[in-house]
Amino acid sequence: MRIKFLGTAAAEGVPAVFCNCETCKRAKARGGKDVRTRSQILIDDDTLFDFPMDTYMHMLAYKLDLSRVKRVLISHAHMDHCYPQEFCMRGEPFAHGMTESAVTVFCNATVRDMFLSDIAREVRPEVERGIRVRVLRPYDRVVDGDAELIALPASHTKGEECLVYYVRRGGAGALLLNDTGELDASVYERLYALGGRVDFVSLDCTYGAIKCDAGRRHMGLYNAAEQIELMRRAGVLNDGARLFATHFSHNTDLDYVGIVGKAAPLGIEIAYDGCEVEL
Question: What is the pLDDT of residues 179-188, one digit of tens each?
Answer without folding.
Answer: 999 999 999 9
